[in-house]
Amino acid sequence: MTSYPLEPTRAEMLAMSEAGARMLADFVEGLPGAPSVDLDGLDDLLPALLAPPDEKPRDFDVLLGRLQAAAAASVETAGPSYLAYIPGGGLFASALGEFLARGHNRYTGVAGLAPGLVAMEQGVMRWLCGEFQLPTAATGIATTGGSIATLTALVAAREHMLGETFSDAALYVTAHTHRCVAKAARVAGLPASAVRVVPTTDDLRMDPAEAARMIAADRAAGRRPAVVVATAGTTDTGTIDDLEALADLAAAERLWFHVDGAYGGFFHLTERGRRRLAGIERADSIVLDPHKALFLPYGTGVLLVRDHNLLQAAFAGDANYLQDLGSDGDLPDYNSLTPELTREARGPRLWLPLHLHGVAAFRDALDEKLDLAIEVHTALADDPRIEVGDAPDLTVVTFRLRGRPEAEQARWLERINAAGRVFLSSTRIGGEYTLRLCVLAHRTHADRIHEAIDLIRGCVPAG
Ligand SMILES: Cc1ncc(COP(=O)(O)O)c(C=O)c1O
């Protein structure tokens, strides 16, 4: 029988899969004891990793070992120690769904080629549209992350609000809006001057009165205000803008209301989160990042748009070579809703963990993180050497050493992280160097948070 080297036998596939699954199970099992950062030995590893492939085949086990070493040489973004930036963890069931989806290699740019897998993604999107109380005309699509979801939303908003010329456009953000918004505006062809930074109130929320004043001034100066961008959980401090007030403003001014819920949106699944996110249901577009607060592995964002037709108007188009592909009635052709044509099946990575674990498991995990963030805030606020930010809206706690210079704050962060049990990051608030701790990885529980609190206090320099 002819054998083709690119087509492993059943026995070979099973052996490779089992070795890979074992490696992953060992990895996940070892996460509680893993160092928060392990970049030692990287210099020895890099030459082999950067080497081009040989003409001849190599041994699978050797290659698997190399992959394992490459993955190990990292900041431990999957473990309980990761409290920096915006964690997520990476659910095993999602990784498995992804492996299976990739193995089947289905095409989901048009519904007709893999309607089952498109339906799987749509089922999750429709559930999310319902969760956010969007009307039946709403639609959702899985993207590769929040930045691409934001770009997709802004192109739809630009098309609908501004038409073909938009050098006079204005969209409203704050200093704490994620950088992906300005980046998306630029990629969407808007000039840098279109991004208008609205002052915040003392509690770091967009000031609706200032926004109204700027919109009026911009109109008077001949600009065309188009989009209000609210953030449902800023990266810096986890702060939720006043979504009701900004929805009122957008409605009164007839602007597109975009909500960046990449970090905070999924807290809507909890009772506290739903209360704090009131007004999100009035958005024209919502960005969510399942690779943050739904704990998926990196690579999955979501865009929800209130009116399916507006997304379609921005991205749909015909091509002769697609003439054989009729649309599949109820299921969307995703290529008409985004800049992408070819895309993999993104449903299984969402669908499998949600159905396998059930939604309550996600609500409970998010509730647990809300409680843990309050615990951190309360414990640090009790220490007179530490100055804490406002009580967290979600799960980011900010703090700095009281009355100490910036260099000492940075050294404090280094000392906390050097123990290898937690990994925190910093930002600037009002220009001041500030440490931040974000509880969001699904594997972070009370034991690690207690360790983090002890380390933060224990590393305060004598002064
Ligand atoms: C509030 C917020 N918006 C948008 C993004 C961008 O999302 P992504 O990194 O998935 O592109 C992030 C990422 O951290 C974020 O925190």
From TrEMBL:
Q: Record's SUPFAM superfamilies?
A: PLP-dependent transferases
Q: Which residues carry this modification: N6-(pyridoxal phosphate)lysine?
A: 292
Q: Which GO terms describe its biological process?
A: amino acid metabolic process; carboxylic acid metabolic process
Q: Does the keyword Transmembrane apply?
A: no
Q: Which family does it belong to?
A: Belongs to the group II decarboxylase family.
Q: Which PANTHER family match?
A: GROUP II PYRIDOXAL-5-PHOSPHATE DECARBOXYLASE (PTHR11999), MIP05841P (PTHR11999:SF70)
This protein's name: Aromatic-L-amino-acid decarboxylase
Q: Can you name the source organism?
A: uncultured Nocardioidaceae bacterium
